[in-house]
Amino acid sequence: MTATILDGKAMAEEIRAEVARRVSEFVSSKGVTPCLAAVLVGDNPASEVYVRNKRLACEKAGIHSQLHRLSAESTTEDLLALVDRLNKDPQVHGILVQLPLPKGMDETRVLHAVNPVKDVDAFHPDNVGRIVQGRPRFLPCTPHGVHQLLMRKNIPIAGSHVVVLGRSDIVGKPMAIMLMQRGPGGDATVTVCHSRTRDLPAITRQADILIVAIGKAKFLTADMVKPGATVIDVGINRTESGLVGDVDYDAVREVAGHITPVPGGVGPLTIAMLLHNTLAAASLQTA
Length: 287
Ligand code: NAP
Fold this sequence. Notes:
Radius of gyration: 19 Å
Strand order of the largest sheet: 1-11-8-7-5-6
Order of helices and strands: EHEHEHEHHHEHEHEEEEHEH
Largest sheet: 6 strands, parallel
Strand content: 15-25%
Bound molecules: NADP nicotinamide-adenine-dinucleotide phosphate
Shape: globular
Distance between the termini: 50 Å
Helix content: 40-55%
């Protein structure tokens, strides 16, 4: 069997076009243009690229974007002062603090300082708590993108066994919570695996849907996949042969029923969902 490729890039373009249409309606009816403020601290080259791509996507969707830079020598207090200014600025609807922050900065304090209604990454405990309780304000962009991909491609979720590899606050944990919720898009039986999981292949082979977010190039091999399973590769690893995911794509493709490529899978959807959240934030603040 050769898997059907789940084209995240094409779906992201669809979602971005939908958001652009809704932004245009919003601007006409409210007279307000949604605005995302990106905060970049230090000079991490990958972060520079991520922020540039996010800002470009905003522009294309009719969303204003601002870039606020701080040097790598800045203190947590400097960053908190900037976040406070952005929290109070009525022109700014969404705040994105690009991670990782330089060593020595208190990431938790900074993320907790973002006004929850401007927290388009959904990292604030208020937003995380709402997600756990099944009444989200925003959903975190990467798991939200994966969720949209599964739903729009009609991959059955309810009653399916989903195995999530990785338990990070950004991907694995919210992903598992979203899929186990009651109701449409949920009702899955979810298993979460991590570095202390015993006999990982025995668990991954039970999965109808496997979501891999561990940050290890080509970690998931074909023998770890049940024939016909849907395999979602969240990983982005820079190797000598270019960008690769956490899935051994060429081999797993021969076993899986559906698979996302890297690049062109989950990455573009993450950006699309950021635009969605920025519009949602602007709507909340002008309601
Ligand atoms: P992270 O914070 O580094 O967490 C990695 C998780 O993987 C941890 O829970 C860790 O377990 C688990 N893990 C590590 N080695 C393992 C192993 N051998 N077996 C089983 N589990 C293992 O990672 P993240 O931020 O979630 O990112 C994961 C990957 O997704 C990275 O490649 C990242 O670049 C990518 N990513 C992509 C997007 C996108 O837009 N496509 C967005 C975010 C992240 P422990 O908890 O036990 O340490």
